[in-house]
Design goal:
heterodimer, A: 559 residues, alpha/beta, FAD/NAD(P)-binding domain, seven-stranded mixed β-sheet, 18 helices, 35% helix, 18% strand, globular, B: 582 residues, alpha+beta, five-stranded antiparallel β-sheet, 30% helix
Chain lengths: 559, 582
C-alpha cells in the first residue's frame, strides 16, 4: 500500500482509492489505448486508461527536448492514415482546437550537387519534378501511383481497420477485382525489386526506395510488396497536427473523459491478476489494485505476457510464440536543433524549402543500401548515411517559446539499437557528422546559427517509452511471419487472446505501428462485441465498400 | 471563412486558475470554453522530459494547496489524483531533526522553536485548526468595499480568536513574519529558514502587516501538505483538475491565443483569437461573462486596451509591482549523487539527495542582503556566493517508483532555486520593443551571462555540496527571461506575478477597484494569480473565491456540493453565495 501520511490534523484530502473496480482497464495511453478507451467509454463501459509515464500520448509526444522554450515532436510527427482513420469521422475532435495540415510539397530529396526531387501530394507536381531526372520515370510514376492509390483506397486503407485474414483468404478475396489482382502481384516482390523493375534513374529510385522503407520495411524482404503501394501513397499524404502530435492525444483523451472514462498516469502496472481462469485486474508499483474482468493491453508482447501475466497463466504454445517475437531490425537516431534561422537548402527547386520532409544523404540505391546494410550490421559509417529532416516551426508557430526566438528542426536517421562503439561514444560523434552533412545541404546551418542541440538514441527511445523495446517504434519487426493475422501471433491478432478477458491492441497487433490507430479500433470493436455493448459507431464508407466488394460475409460484426 | 461560436463563459488562459474555475462553472451546468495559447494547458504547473528518463519541474514543484475546498468540491480523487508522500510526512514534526543549514554547519532547532511554530500554525491545540487557519488566509474572498476592515472581521483573526485567543492581538496586523517569530520562536536560524521559505513562496519575512499570510505561505507547504509532491509531479495535479473540468463538460482548446477581449458599450461580449489559433472560429461570444485568467497587465493593456479602460486605472495596473520573486531555476545532472559536506550531515540528512531547504540561514542579515540585491537593484546578482540565499529541493523526496531520473549513471537534483533581480527590459529601445520575437528583451546579453551566472550559483551550492564540481555532467537552467517566454503569465520570471505585500493583499489585490474579481467592464472578471487575492502557488483559491462573486452576480447557481467560505461577507444588493447554509 502507498505511504499514508499520519498528520497531526487528520486526512488532508481524498486521494484516488487503493482499490477500484472497472468494466475495462486499458494499459498504455498511446494512440491505440486512447482510441480503444474513447470508443468504449462512449459505448457506456466504465473505462480506466492506465499510463506509466507522467503524460499520455505514448509516441504522440510533443516535449521540450531543447529545454527551455523549444518544443519538438520527439516521436511521431508524420501522420499517414488521417484520411482513413475512423476516429476522424466518429469523434468531433475539431472542437478542441485541433487541426491537421497536409502540405503539398511532402518530401524533397536534396542531392549533393544541389539537385532536388520533390515528392508532392499532387501527383502531377511530383511528375514535374521527376521529369528533370527522367521523363520515362515521371510517366511510370504517374501510372503506378494511379494503380497504387486505388489499391490503398479500396483495400489497404480500409483493411487497416478490419480484423486480419489468413493469407489464403486474402488471396481468394483479391481475385475478385483487377485492383485486388494488382495488389497480389505486388505482394510477392521486395521493395527493391519493385523500384528497380519500374524505374531507370538512380536518384529517382533511391528517393522512392527511401520513401517506402522509411518506417522500417526491409528493402530486400519479399512477401511484403504491398507496403510499397501503401507507403508510396501514404508518405505523400502525411499530415501534421498543429501544435504538435501530443494535441491528437489530448483530443482523444478529452473524448474519453467527457464520456465518463478515467485516465490515470504516473501509474505503472506490475501484474495482471487472474481469478477463476479469467483476468481479474492489475496491481501497480505504488500498491494500488484496479479490478476489471476485461483488460486491453497496448504494451509490447513481452511486457504484456511475460512480465505482467506470467508464464504460469499462459498456454505453452503462446509462451513459445511470445518468446520468439522479434523486435524491429532498426531504430532511429535523431538530432534536434534550435536555430536562429530555419534551414535553407541550397538546391535547384525552391519547393524543397517548403517541403514537410527533406531527405539528405540519399544519393543512389547502392549507396543507400550500403547504409542500411551497415545499420542492420550494427554500425553507421559517418561518411555514408542518409536521413530525413523537418523544420517543424516552419509549419507550426506554436513550438517556440524562447526569448531567443528562432526555429526547431530535427534530423533523423535509421540506426541500430546495439551500435559498434556504444551510444555514449557514438551519439555525440554522429550528431557532429549529421550537423556537418546537414550544413552541406543547407549552408546556413552553421554553428553560429545553432542555438542549442540535443540528440536521442535508440537507447533513449526505449528509456522514454519502455515498450519500444530495443528502440523498436513498432513494437516488433515487419516481416511476413509477424504481419497480418500473424501479428503478434495467430491467436492474438484479432485482439482477443487465449486468456479469457485479456485483449491485445497495441502496435504489435495487426495492422502495426506508426499511429495507424488500427489495433485500438479493432480491439474496441472486439471488446464491445464480447461485452454486448451497443456500438454507437459505423464503419467508414470505404470500409463498407471493401467489405461488400471483397468479403463474403461481414467481418467481425462491422458490416 | 471565419465562424462564430457562443458559450456561457469564455475563459482566457488555461493555467491552474482558469481551468479550476472552468471545472467549477461546468459543474454548475454552464457551457464553458477555455482558450490557452500554448500547446499544453497547465501554465507553470508543468513537467518536462528533456532527456529520456530525466523529468524536470521548471516551476511549481510542491503541493501548497492541501487545504483547498477544490479537492472535495471538484472531487479530484476521482480523476486519479494521488500523492507521492514524502517519508517525512509520516511524522511532520521530524523536520526538527534535520536542523537548519548555516555557514559552518547545522544549527539545531530548539524545543521552543517547534512549540512556538506549532502554536502559531494551529497544530498545538487539542483540536488542530491549521486547515481553518489556512482557509481563512487563502480560501475566502476579500470583503466587499462597503465593509470596513477591522481586526474582528479579518478572517484569520477570527480563526485565532475562536481557536487560540492567546495569539489574538491587534498588533498581529502590523507585524512582519520576523516580528511574529521573534515573539514565539527561539533560534535565529530557524526563523531565517521559515522567512526564506515564505519569501520563495511569494510572501516574505520582512513585509509589514502580512505576518500571517507569509506564515500561511510557509506552513501550507511545510506542515499541511507535508513537503510532498503529487505522484507524477505537479503537472499530474493539474491533470486531475483539467480532467474534472472536461468531465464537467468544459471545452478546452490549446494553441488558441486570444488577441482581444471584445468590449461593446462597456460590456465584455467575447474574444477574438489570433490568426495562428488552431480553430475555424475566430470569434467566440460569451453569453454570461468573459473571465481573464491571464496576467492583470496583459488583460488591461494588451487584450482590452485604452479605449475601454480609464487612464487612471490603466496607470494603476501598469504600476503594479513586479518585484519580489524572479527565480533562476537550476537542474543539476551529475555522475554521482550529490553529497552534503561533512559539517552538514545530521541524523536525518547524511545520505546523498537529502540536501534540502534554504542556505545559509545564519542570520537575518544574510536574508536582508539578498533581499536588497533582488529588490533594491537591477542587473545580475551581486552578493558574494557565500551569502547567496538559495533553496534546494531533495531528490529523496520522491519515492523510488517516482524517481525523477532513470538514466543509468546519471543523478538529478532539481530544482534548485535562487531569487534574482527581475530581468531588465529595454523599454526605451524601439527596435527590441517592436520585435515580436524579443518583446523588449536583449537576448544576447542574457545568453552571454547565463553560463557565468550558473557558475556563480554552483559556487554557492558547493558550499554545502562536496562533489558538485567534480561530478557535474550538465547544469540546465531556466532563467527568469526563459521562464517568462515559456509561460507568458510569469512576467519577468516572477512566479507569483505580484508580491503578497500589504499593498497588494486581500482587499488591496491587485488594486482596491479590482479586489473582488469584478472589473469596471461589465461581464469581465479576473482569475489570475497576479490579479486576485490570494495570488499564486496553484492553490485553486482564486477560482473558489471568484465563485462567490459569480454567484452573487447571478451568473451561476451551484448544487449541494458547494459551500461558501465561512468568513465570506455578501455584498449588499447581491445574491448571497452562502444562502441555504451553503
Amino acid at each position: 500500500m502507498p505511504i499514508k501520511p499520519d498528520f497531526l490534523f487528520g486526512k488532508p484530502f481524498d486521494e484516488f482509492p487503493d482499490v477500484t473496480e472497472w468494466d475495462v482497464i486499458v494499459l498504455g495511453a498511446g494512440p491505440n489505448g486512447l482510441i480503444a478507451a474513447a470508443y468504449l467509454a462512449k459505448a457506456g463501459a466504465k473505462v480506466c486508461l492506465v499510463e506509466r509515464r507522467y503524460e499520455i500520448g505514448g509516441g504522440l509526444a510533443t516535449d521540450e527536448v531543447l529545454f527551455p522554450g523549444y518544443y519538438s515532436n520527439n516521436h511521431a510527427i508524420y501522420h499517414m492514415m488521417v484520411d482513413y482513420m475512423p476516429v476522424m469521422q466518429d469523434f468531433d475532435i475539431g472542437k478542441y482546437g485541433f487541426q491537421w495540415i497536409k502540405p503539398n510539397p511532402q518530401t524533397a530529396a536534396v542531392f549533393n550537387d544541389g539537385q532536388a526531387l520533390v515528392l508532392s501530394h499532387m501527383v502531377e507536381d511530383t511528375k514535374d519534378s521527376i521529369t528533370k531526372f527522367s521523363f520515362k520515370d515521371a510517366v511510370t510514376y504517374g501510372r503506378l501511383m494511379r494503380s497504387w492509390k486505388k489499391i490503398v483506397a479500396e483495400i489497404l486503407g480500409p483493411a487497416t481497420y478490419l480484423p486480419p485474414m489468413l493469407p489464403i483468404e486474402i488471396t481468394m478475396a483479391m481475385q475478385k477485382t483487377k485492383t485486388g489482382q494488382e495488389m497480389l502481384e505486388l505482394v510477392e516482390e521486395s521493395a527493391l525489386d519493385i523500384i528497380n523493375n519500374n524505374f531507370e534513374n538512380d536518384r529517382v529510385k533511391a528517393t522512392l526506395l527511401y520513401n517506402c522503407c522509411i518506417w522500417g520495411l526491409d528493402p530486400r524482404e519479399t512477401g511484403v510488396g504491398m507496403f510499397v503501394a501503401l507507403y508510396s501513397d501514404r508518405m505523400t499524404n502525411k499530415c501534421y497536427c498543429m501544435g504538435g502530435s501530443h494535441k491528437f492525444a489530448a483530443a482523444l483523451a478529452r473524448e474519453i473523459l467527457s464520456n465518463g472514462g478515467i485516465i490515470i498516469d504516473a501509474c505503472e502496472a506490475t501484474k495482471i491478476t487472474m481469478e477463476g481462469g479469467r483476468v481479474s485486474g492489475i496491481e501497480t508499483t505504488e500498491g494500488r489494485i484496479l479490478k476489471a474482468k476485461t483488460i486491453m493491453s497496448t504494451l509490447d508482447p513481452h511486457t504484456t505476457f511475460l512480465d505482467l501475466l506470467g508464464k504460469e497463466n499462459m498456454p505453452g504454445d503462446l509462451t513459445e510464440a511470445i518468446e520468439g517475437w522479434k523486435y524491429d531490425k532498426w531504430s532511429y537516431f535523431t538530432v534536434h536543433v534550435a536555430t536562429k534561422e530555419a534551414p535553407r537548402y541550397n538546391c535547384d527547386d525552391p519547393w524543397a524549402n517548403d517541403a514537410f520532409m527533406n531527405l539528405v544523404g540519399v544519393e543512389g540505391t547502392d549507396q543507400l543500401l550500403a547504409h542500411w546494410d551497415n545499420v542492420i550490421a550494427g554500425k553507421i559509417d559517418p561518411n555514408n548515411f542518409a536521413g530525413h529532416a523537418t523544420c517543424e516551426s516552419l509549419l507550426d508557430p506554436h513550438l517556440v517559446h524562447s526569448p531567443y526566438g528562432g526555429h526547431v528542426s530535427f534530423f533523423q536517421m535509421h540506426a541500430p539499437y546495439d551500435i559498434e562503439g556504444g551510444w555514449d561514444k557514438m551519439g555525440p560523434e554522429l550528431e557532429a557528422a549529421i550537423l556537418e552533412k546537414w550544413q552541406k545541404a543547407a549552408p546556413n546551418m552553421t554553428r553560429d546559427n545553432i542555438i542549442r542541440t540535443t540528440h536521442e538514441t535508440p537507447v533513449g527511445i526505449e528509456r522514454r517509452f519502455p515498450n519500444m523495446r530495443k528502440g523498436g517504434i513498432k513494437h516488433g519487426d515487419y516481416k511476413p511471419i509477424q504481419l497480418g493475422c500473424f501479428r503478434p501471433n495467430q491467436e492474438c491478432s484479432s485482439s482477443a487472446t487465449p486468456i479469457p478477458g485479456l485483449y491485445t491492441c497495441g502496435a504489435s497487433n495487426y495492422p502495426g505501428g506508426a499511429v495507424l490507430g488500427g489495433p485500438g479500433y479493432i480491439g474496441a470493436n472486439k471488446v464491445a462485441e464480447d461485452m454486448g455493448l451497443t456500438k454507437w459507431w459505423k464503419p467508414t464508407r470505404r470500409m463498407e465498400q471493401y467489405v461488400e466488394t471483397y468479403l463474403d460475409s461481414p467481418l467481425g460484426g462491422l458490416g | 471563412m471565419a465562424k462564430e461560436e457562443q458559450f456561457d463563459f469564455v475563459i482566457v488562459g488555461g493555467g491552474p486558475n482558469g481551468v479550476a474555475l472552468a471545472s467549477y462553472l461546468g459543474k454548475c451546468g454552464a457551457s464553458v470554453c477555455v482558450l490557452e495559447e500554448r500547446t499544453e494547458a497547465g501554465g507553470s504547473v508543468d513537467n518536462v522530459e528533456p532527456f529520456p528518463g530525466v523529468r524536470l519541474t521548471p516551476h511549481a514543484m510542491y503541493m501548497y494547496s492541501g487545504p483547498a475546498p477544490g479537492f472535495e468540491q471538484l472531487e479530484l480523487w476521482k480523476y486519479g489524483f494521488r500523492m507521492d508522500w514524502s517519508p517525512m510526512s509520516e511524522n511532520i514534526m521530524s523536520q526538527k531533526d534535520a536542523g537548519v543549514k548555516v555557514s559552518d554547519g547545522i544549527a539545531s532547532i530548539s524545543e521552543k522553536d517547534m512549540m512556538g511554530w506549532a502554536k502559531i500554525s494551529g497544530v498545538s491545540t487539542e483540536k488542530p485548526y491549521i486547515k481553518e487557519l489556512l482557509r481563512s488566509i487563502f480560501w475566502t474572498p476579500p470583503h466587499p468595499a462597503e465593509v470596513e476592515i477591522t481586526p474582528d472581521n479579518i478572517p484569520y483573526m477570527q480563526v485565532y480568536k475562536q481557536h487560540d485567543p492567546s495569539i489574538w492581538t491587534e498588533e498581529l496586523l502590523d507585524m512582519t513574519m520576523f516580528d511574529l517569530m521573534d515573539e514565539y520562536l527561539e533560534t535565529e536560524p530557524f526563523k531565517v529558514m521559515q522567512a526564506a521559505v515564505a519569501w520563495y513562496s511569494g510572501a516574505a519575512g520582512h513585509w509589514e502587516g502580512v505576518a500571517i499570510p507569509a506564515l500561511g505561505c510557509d506552513i501550507t507547504l511545510t506542515l499541511y501538505s507535508g513537503l510532498s509532491v503529487p505522484r507524477g509531479g505537479m503537472h499530474d495535479y493539474f491533470h486531475a483538475i483539467i480532467r474534472s473540468a472536461i468531465a464537467n463538460g468544459v471545452i478546452i482548446r490549446t494553441c488558441c491565443p486570444v488577441d482581444e477581449i471584445i468590449v461593446e458599450n462597456g460590456v465584455a461580449k467575447g474574444v477574438r483569437l489570433r490568426d495562428t489559433a488552431t480553430t475555424d472560429e475566430n470569434t467566440i461570444w460569451a453569453k454570461k461573462a468573459v473571465i481573464s485568467a491571464v496576467d492583470v497587465r496583459q488583460t488591461f493593456v494588451d487584450l482590452i486596451g485604452p479605449s475601454h479602460v480609464g487612464a487612471s486605472l490603466l496607470r494603476k495596473v501598469k504600476d503594479i509591482s513586479l518585484k519580489g520573486g524572479s527565480i533562476w531555476v537550476s537542474h543539476l545532472i551529475t555522475k554521482e549523487p550529490l553529497r552534503p559536506r561533512e559539517k552538514f550531515k545530521t541524523a536525518s540528512m547524511s545520505e546523498p539527495g537529502e540536501v534540502g531547504g534554504p542556505f545559509p540561514c545564519d542570520h537575518r542579515d544574510i536574508y536582508y542582503e539578498h533581499v536588497a540585491d533582488v529588490d533594491g537593484r537591477k542587473g545580475i546578482p551581486s552578493v558574494p556566493p557565500e551569502r547567496l540565499m538559495w533553496l534546494a529541493t531533495q531528490s529523496k523526496r520522491f519515492s523510488d517508483a517516482e524517481s525523477q531520473c532513470t538514466v543509468p549513471g546519471w543523478y538529478l537534483e532539481s530544482p534548485y532555486y535562487v531569487l534574482v533581480p527581475p530581468p531588465e527590459y529595454e523599454q526605451d529601445d524601439p527596435i527590441t520593443l517592436k520585435n515580436e520575437d524579443f518583446r523588449g528583451v536583449r537576448p544576447n546579453t542574457v545568453d552571454a551571462q547565463k553560463e557565468e551566472i550558473n557558475a556563480y550559483m554552483r559556487k554557492a551550492f558547493s558550499l554545502v555540496l562536496e562533489n558538485l564540481d567534480d561530478d557535474l555532467i550538465m547544469h540546465l537552467a531556466n532563467t527568469p527571461y526563459e521562464s517568462e517566454f515559456r509561460n507568458t503569465g510569469l512576467i519577468g520570471g516572477t512566479w507569483c506575478g505580484t508580491r503578497h505585500c500589504d499593498d497588494q493583499w486581500g482587499e488591496n489585490r491587485p488594486v482596491p477597484e479590482l479586489a473582488r474579481y469584478r472589473t469596471p467592464i461589465d461581464g469581465l472578471y479576473l482569475c489570475n494569480q497576479t490579479s486576485c487575492h490570494p495570488g499564486g502557488l496553484a492553490l485553486m483559491a482564486v477560482p473558489y473565491n471568484l465563485m462567490h462573486i459569480l454567484i452573487e452576480d447571478g451568473l451561476v447557481e451551484p448544487g449541494d456540493w458547494w459551500y461558501a467560505s465561512p468568513w465570506y461577507i455578501p455584498e449588499s444588493g447581491k445574491i448571497p453565495a452562502n444562502k441555504n447554509g451553503r
